[in-house]
Amino acid sequence: MEHELIAYYEKSLSDSEKKEVERWINAHPSHLKTFEDIVFLWKNSKQNSVFRLYDKNKAWEKIQSEINLSHFEPSQKTKALSSIWWQLGAAAAILAFIILLPLYFNKSKKHEQFTASESQKRITLKDKSNIILFPKTTLTLDPDFYKKTRTVTLKGNAFFDISKNPDKPFIVHSNDLIVEVLGTSFTIKQGSEFNTVFVHKGKVRAIHNGQSITATAKQKIIKDNKTQSLYLENMKADIEAILQSQTLKVKDIRIDSLSHILESLYNIEIKMSPNIKEKKITSTYFLGTETLSKLWKILL
Q1: Where do the structural domains in the chain lie, given as residue ranges?
Q2: Straight-line distance from the first to the last Cα atom of the chain, in angstroms, rounded to the nearest whole number
Q3: Structural Rg of the chain based on CA atoms
Q4: Sheet of 177-181: strands edge to edge?
Q5: What are residue 231's DSSP bridge partners?
């Protein structure tokens, strides 16, 4: 499987082979971790010139060839044994160095991490991308961020305004959903029932379990956590400012207009009595701290 995973990373698989690998990666969180570890080691073996100088098999063969008892006469047994033990010790040290060398390079590469605790956190990455982390959210950058790709892992909810770079796609791992973009703005919202990607500008592709959906501005990609399926919907209202501020502030808005905003935010369908559609309300609602049921009590 290692060869297929490396070929997938190098983008040398056919479309059918690529789908098979993606299905395997998304089947279980441990598969994704295995894929990331293999790619990490593969990158090290290609990029570290010191690592490339050593070949474990060749090194071991050379050591074995040098430790050959046939080179010693019977009268030289004592001297030979002493020499053998010395060479074996040296061989063990060399092999340990060869085996541990990649680990040294892996350890030296640290994952840069950003965390928002109780309030929003705005960050600008070295590629000039701007990100807003909402409360209780963590963003982790891949150690090789901005080499071939700009890969990050998201735990929580965040707004992304990604700088355009066709040669280095921006990839977000959001739970078991993979989101790929070149340059655009979007928001990822993780929930118990749905994981949602709201696209504000540009184009976004989401991948999960062999499924792939592309969305453009004013569309959203929804992953149903129960059925594990992906589907595409048009947003019924412009909610970019609401998602960025995580605040829904309305003044003299009709209930039917508010329902379109809530349907876009929560992936729900609201049915209401005709006699309340024209009712107007004024209120402020904080997305990160209040539940939808509590919102209805406040508004209605």
Answers
A1: 2-108, 113-234, 241-299
A2: 56
A3: 28
A4: 113-116, 137-141, 150-155, 170-174, 177-181, 203-208, 211-216
A5: 222
Mean pLDDT of the chain: 79
CATH architecture observed for domain 113-234: Sandwich (2.60)
Q: How far apart are CA 109 and CA 140, in angstroms?
A: 13
**Distances 153 to 38, 54, 171, 174 between C-alpha atoms, Å:** 17, 33, 8, 6
226-238 b/e (C-beta count within 10 Å ≥ 16 → b): eeeebeeeebebe
SS3 21: helix
pLDDT in tens, 69-102: 444 444 454 455 455 444 545 555 555 555 555 5
pLDDT tens track for 148-171 = 999 999 999 999 999 999 899 999
Do strands 219-224 and 194-201 pair parallel, antiparallel, or not at all (unpaired)? antiparallel
296 falls in which pLDDT band (50, 70, 90)? low
pLDDT at site 24? 82
CA 133 to chain centroid, in Å, comes to 15
Residue 239 CA to residue 246 CA, distance in Å, equals: 10
Give the SS3 label for residue 55.
coil
CB 282 within 8 A of CB 258: no
Read off the pTM: 0.61
Bridge partners (DSSP) of residue 199 are 186, 219
Contact 177, 198 (CB under 8 A): no
**CA quadruple 110, 40, 35, 111: dihedral, nearest 10:** 10
